[in-house]
Amino acid sequence: MSDLVVAIGLVLVLEGVLYALAPGHMKDFMKKAQELPEQSLRTGGLVALFLGFLIVWIARGGF
Question: What are the structural domain ranges in the chain?
Answer without folding.
Answer: 2-59
